[in-house]
Structure formats: C-alpha cells, structure tokens
Amino acid sequence: MAKIKQHNFLNTVHEVFTQAREAGVLHLYAGGNSFSGRTIAIDGKNLYHFGTTGYLGLEQDPRLKKAAKEAIERYGTQFPLSKSYISNPLYGELEQYMGKVYDNPIIITKNSTLGHMGVIPSAVDDDDVIVLDHQVHWSVQNAAKMLKTRSVPIEMIRHNNLEMLEDKIRKYRGSKRKIWYMADGIYSMYGDYAPVAELMELSKKYPQLHFYFDDVHGMSWVGKNGTGYVLDQLGELPENVLLFGTLSKTFGASGAVLACSNPELYDKIKTFGGPLTFSAQLEPASVAAAIASAQIHLSPEIYGLQAELRERIDCFNSYLSNTELPLIDTNESPVFYIGTGMPKTGYNFVNRLIQDGYYVNLGIFPAVPVKNTGVRITISRHNQKEEIKSLVDAMAYHFPKALEDTHTNTERVFHAFKLKPFRYIKAKEPAELKMENFESIVEVDKVQWNRFLGGQGVYDWDGLRFLEQVFQGHSKKEHNWLFLYLIIKDGEGVPVLMTFVTLSLWKDDMLANAEVSKNIEEQRMKVSYHLSSMILSMGCLFTEGNHLFWDASHPLAEKAKVSFLEWLEGREQDLGAKMTVLRDFPEDTLWHGDLYGHGFLRIRMPNSCSIDLINIPSMETYIVRLSSRNRRHFRKDVQPFLETVSSTVHDCVAQGQLSQFKMLFEEVHARNLGLNTYTFPDTLFEHMNQNQLWEFIVLCPLNAPERVLGVMFCYKNTDQVYVPAFVGLDYGHLKTYATYRQLLYRTIERGIALGMRKIDLGMTASFEKRKLGAIVEEKYAYLQTRDNFILELLGVMEGQR
C-alpha cells in the first residue's frame, strides 16, 4: 500500500474540493451591490442566508460601519508599520476596552491563525508536551506542529475523550513540565462543546495540566460581556488557561484576541510572538470597528442581543424536533449540522436548498470525515422566525429526495454518524441483476473465475484456494483472514462484476512513513495490537493487481457498480471493519467520481511492475531488446556477479533449508517499515513447499553452497503468469553479490524457460525493476474510514523523533 505524505494529503483535499466546486457548492462568489446579512445573492438569485458566522449580526451595525469609515478618513486604509515598532493610534484604546471585556491582560492579533502561530511556540517550552483534541481547529494543529522542530512531543486523542487524555497525562507527568491540552470551546462543524468543567476537575488532579482553548465560535453570543462559552463555564480565567477569542465572526470587526491571566507568560508572549512581531497590524478601520463593538459588549445591550439570538436558536431546535432530520448534535449553540453521509448526497441536498432559496454551508473533508459529509446551518439575528421555519420545512422536504437521488437511505446516514442503534437494511437488489455471495473459492465456478480474474497475481482459483488454506485456524488473529466473493450477473447469467475481498488485521501505520512506523513498533513491544484495525480490503495483503472485473460496456454496468458499493457497506457494518480499501486502480479509472461521491479518498500506491514475455524465446533475446541504458546497467551491475553464485530452482526443499528461507524473508520484512504489515504464519512456507504451483529460486555462493544468499518465492499462475510474490535476502552479503538484482534477472530467466507470457513483479523497488526492463504503472487506492482520527494522528506523528 501507499504512504500518506503531505503532498498526498494535499492532493486528496484538492480533489475533494474540486469535486465540490464542480457540483456548485464550494468556492462560490456572492453577488449584488450591497449585503444585509439576511439574504445573500448567488448567480443573480437572492437566498436566505443560513451560513454566516456573524451570529449577532454586528458586522451590519451602523455604529461599527461609522467608526470604520471615520478611521479611514483620519488614518488611511492601513498603518504600514510593524506593531513591534509603533501601533496605529487606535490600538491602545482597543487594548484598554478588550482588557475590560475580559477583565484580564489581552493581546490583539491580526487573526486567529497568525495568533496561534505566534502564541503556541512562545507559550510551550521545550520540556512541555502538547495533546490535541483531534477535532481542534486546523489552525491550532498547524501551529502546534511547528514545535516538532524543537522535539516537543505532540499527541492526539479522540474528540472529548477524557480517558485518553488522562492516559496521556500519566504517560508524561514524570518527564514533562507542562502538559498542554488544546481544544476548541465550540467546535465549528457540529456546534458541540468542550467539557470545560470536567477538564478543570482533571487539572486539580494533575497540576501539570494546562489548557489552550480556541473559542472563536463561542465568542459574543454567550457569556459575561460576550467573552464566550469557555469563560462562561470558567467564571474566572485561571493561570493554567490561555483563551483565544475573535474580533471577527460574531464580534463584527477583524482580528483575534488572547486572554492570559499569568503575568509572566503574558509578558513572554507579548514581547516576542513570531507573527505578532513581524506581521502587518490590523487596519485602522478594523481597529475602530472593534472598539465600537467592544463598547457594545461592555454595555447591557449585549445581553439583549444574546437573548434575541437565543430565541431564534430555540425556535430552530423546536422546529427540528418535529422532523426526522439527522441532527448530529443537539445543543444551544448557533451551529447545527445535518448529516448526509456520502459527499454526493451532500452536494445534492445543498443544491436543492439553493434552488429553493436557502444558502447553507457544506461540511466536507478534511473538516469532517468523508463519510460524515453534511450541511452546516448557522443561525443569526438576521434570520427571521418565519424564514427559520420555512428552511426546516424545505430541508424536511428535500432531504429524502436527495437520499433517493443518490441511492442511499436514512439508515445509512444514521449509521455513519452513530446516532442510534443501527440495524443494517439490505439494499434492494435491482431486478435485472443477481448477486451471488460466497465465503470460499471452492463454491465458485473455477473456469468462470479464471476467465475473468485468473490472469494475474496469486488470485487465480488455485491461488485463492492456497491462500484460504494458509490463513485460517491460527492462534494469532493477524493470521486469520476472512475471504468473501461477489459475482453480479445479468438476467442471462453473464457476469457484469466479479471480485473478492478480505477482512484482516492491518497495522494502522501501514500507510505511514518508515520513521512513524519505527516509533509505533516500540509501543507494540508493550501492547501487541497497538494502533491496529480490522480492514475490509479488495484483494488481500498477499496479492497485487486488478482485483475487480467490471464490464463497463454492459447496459447494467452502473447499476452493478452501485450494488457493489452498497454490498461493501453492508459487509463493513456486519463485520465491524474500521476501514474499507479498494486498491490497484489506474489513475484514469472510470470509478473515480463514484468512489469520491460514496466517501472514498484516493491515495497513491507504490508503482506496479510487470514484464511482457510474449515472443521472447530466450534470455539473450530479452537482453538484446532492452534499451541501451538498461543494457549498460545489465553489463555493469548484474552480469559481473552471475558467475559468483549458483542459481537453482526448487519446488520442494528440506526442512532445514526451508527454515533458512523463512529467516531471510523475515529479515526483509523487518526492514520494510515503509510497508508495515504483520508477519505471515509459519505454515505459509510449509504450504508453499508442498504446493506444486510454488517454487523457489535460490542463490548460493560458489565457495559456500550451503549458505543461502537470497531466495525468490514464485507462484505459477495457471494463465501462464509468473509471480515472484516475495523475496528473502541476506543483507550482510547483499552488495557483495548484488543479490537482489541477480534474483530479478534469474526470475526473468525462469519465466522465459517456463514459457510464461508475463511476469507480475509486484510493487516496491520499481527503480531496480525498471532497469531490467519492467513496465511501471501508477496505481491508486481508495480508502473509506469511519473517522479521521487515525489519519490525523499519523499526520501529527510525521517527523517526530
């Protein structure tokens, strides 16, 4: 499988956003000559606006507008100096007002993102540790990751999971000075809260625990002076809490604000905070508008505004309670999230609401897991009660139609969000198609299977029978695999789609880089199955190639595709798999759009390598047909070593030699942390040794024939395909004998001698294989996960030592 690297992640986000943009629900432009906040114009159509984060509507307040205009007249559009040298004349006044709002020392920042980048590296010392809630805002996570260069450990826990947090505290309380837990006050997608009271109780038990709260979505609409949800829960700001609020969003201006009651820490951050020092300061208009808003926040008026918003929130909650819409979290914040599950359902639902006159936000990866796509609705004082009711009526009308349009149902949505006990309802099988399910290849017609899927890898009929025998009946759960087969036929009994999937235990870091896997393996020395999950995968960890037959030209091809994806979802739920993986697709696969729409993410796999042996009668002919560059490689890096070893082929060896083969394979496996999998059962090698379709290409030194330098484990596919499935190497003599290159050469030589039409060389080491004439193809996998936690956790671990 592939490594999830930063560019891989960014490419995935780009593709997700591109699809959403093409669906007309992202990267839109507002139109019109003015903006009231109540409606918003898109493509010439006025829509009721249920997507704002200006919950109190202060951005339209005449007092803020007047102050901003006067500031521009007096001071210009900007004050182009670093704030470290001199602040614009209004800054001091704003700081005084905001200090009164919070009743604590404050720092004004250009925005919250730059604020986090300035504050976190200043507040966190080298002997501290950071623990992130995995749903804390991206800007906090990104700023925290900057501290990897200082070797500050960064951990992550599942959302609001205090048991995991306490485990991390116990892990570090003896070695770290401060343990920083970073979380949002109000989470921007679902509108749920941080458990502030429980967290403060935990800090009484562990005095090292400190908190960094990003409460920008809790600002203004709740709390004394509108200081937000967190401070409303705390009452007073303790010294072990850093609190971020915003002057944007509900506050109606621009910028962000940090409140800190620890004088020493405040001075440290204020004196030098990276972007706080070097970034441009807020424009005079923004500072003046913020002063006008601060004056409102310090007056009794703020509580009247909060009450007006509360009426609208209560109204919306009341109307929603009379529907069956899947509200993800019921609370009193102005943020609501209606789940749609699959992205394509979200696109459809948003477009339906836009056409009916309502603008809402789409919630999509990476803000939420792909399978947790949905619609975020925000309520503001701009919204009138009759408009709120009509929005709920429109959602109740369009939601089932969006489900129907995208071939899904409410049960699947509720399951995706774990909203209530779920019983999987089997999807209706199209009348024109027949789905056949099997749990062993012996139940499948051998001729038919080999005709459609038998021409590559170790998954012709006999190969799968071999794998079923190997991966069952073991004491270790990683050695027991469940094989499932699906054949979808038309009314005439002609296959439209065929495949097989396996359920097996994977290491979650199989997709991570080698350094991350090395760190995790140290933890597995203590806890064997640390960061491991049951995965439902097309194909299996033993096979490589196109595991899916699909007749794209068949009139029922699209229906078969939909039926297959629904079947997969049912198997995932029945079997309790944490992830579904569809693999070995070419870049231009016709499945791409549908897989994204169903909540799959694409990642790059290692290249696949193969050699075409048709019309190659001898090894001499093969070498002659290589490119001039590859012939030079053969003469320089392979040919000189051929006479230093003996090469033999065995279909059965003595037990002692088989043990050597196994040890050499394990040496390769232990070094291959870039593709980190559990080992195979010992009986695998016994089965190979007893199966006529397997053979071993063995290299030994001429001067020490009892020593095995390397072995290639090769499968003879019944469709004349030779498959060097695994290799074993003595790394102590690897360079001396060019062992791996010699094994590749002998594999090609053996394939020609057997009259094979093709060699499937598999993944990894594509550079070496290409130099001996292999055809290299890009391959992709599609992942569908229950949540983003593992992907984000591995991302946090990247680069840590």
Which short descriptors sum up this protein?
21% strand, 801 residues, disordered N terminus, Aspartate Aminotransferase, domain 2, Aspartate Aminotransferase, domain 1, alpha+beta, seven-stranded mixed beta sheet, aminotransferase, Aminotransferase_I/II_large, Aminopeptidase, transaminase activity, pyridoxal phosphate binding, transferase
Residue windows where pLDDT falls under 50 for at least 5 positions: 1-7
Strand portion: 15-25%
Task: State the fourth-level CATH superfamily of the largest domain.
Answer: Type I PLP-dependent aspartate aminotransferase-like (Major domain)
Oligomer: single chain
Structural class: alpha+beta
CATH architecture of the largest domain: 3-Layer(aba) Sandwich
Largest sheet: 8 strands, mixed
Mean pLDDT: 92
Return the CATH topology of the largest domain.
Aspartate Aminotransferase, domain 2
How large is the count of helical segments? 28
Shape: globular
Radius of gyration, whole Å: 31 Å
Helix content: 25-40%
Provide the CATH top-level class of the largest domain: Alpha Beta
Total number of strands? 29
Q: List the domain count as a whole number.
A: 4
Give the N-to-C terminal Cα separation: 24 Å
Task: Please provide a brief summary of the model.
This protein is an alpha+beta fold and 801 residues long. Helices cover 38% and strands 21% of the residues.
